[in-house]
Design goal:
10 strands, single chain, 6-stranded parallel β-sheet, alpha/beta
Length: 286
Amino acid sequence: MLKNILALIVLAFGFCATSLQAQANTPVEPSTIIGKFDTSKDLLLAQFDSKTDVDDIHTIAAVATMLRHPRFAQVKYHAVAGAYGIQEGLYVPAPELFNAAFAEHWSNAHIAREQALQEVMVLVQNTLKNGGDIWIAEAGQSDFSAAMVREVQHILPTINTNTRIHLVQHSKWNQKSATPEDLAFVKQHTDYTKIADGNATGNGTPGLRNDDRTLWVRPLADKKVGHLWQLAKSIAEKYNGVEERYNNPAVEKGGIDFSDTAEMCWIFGYNNIVDVSGFFDVFVDK
């Protein structure tokens, strides 16, 4: 009887040891990883065309809301205003919103494109030289991205831009509004990903556009980012459809459209978000 008990103890001990060893050998996602992004070395470029649709104005507030979430505290980022292509129509100026959203971490390609490119290149070079990757959330066209990649290939010819620069685009309209040569170039020379459109739900990415004006209550009430959403709301309403700019139907009805934030959700692993309310559930204080 005693021998049987001892045998069971030895067997149980062996099972526990094997189980612990298996757990030890199971890969664990590093704490620096958020979705596909490594906060220890990668760089996020959030690029906005703001021409002529005011949806980018709402998107600026949404991107800044994500970046202010505690989980994103170590994310290195830089925003670019005026990263547009060949579309006609007027630009939507919002320097006060960029300042409020990103402080010194943004460049104005609408006012000074070459200066903006050089400012971005300093950050891009440092990131690539230190082993990090570049992630571009392209809320606009590929013209500025193409210029940046060409600079990388010229200055850092040993860098494989196809594996180190990741460009994420969600809109067929943005693709059509890019200079064709530039779109073809980034498709060939970057890790280019076209995701499903962020204007609709049920297609694999969050649908971040809604006509319901009551949805504004939640972001406007948030103590950390409410001022950003209020500023974005005011600017979008001021310029929507004005002087032949695109008249965004959701904004016209008092609703909300930050559909270009779908790229951010894809990069950082938040594709499980369904819609505007779901986004606020994750990133806005209740």
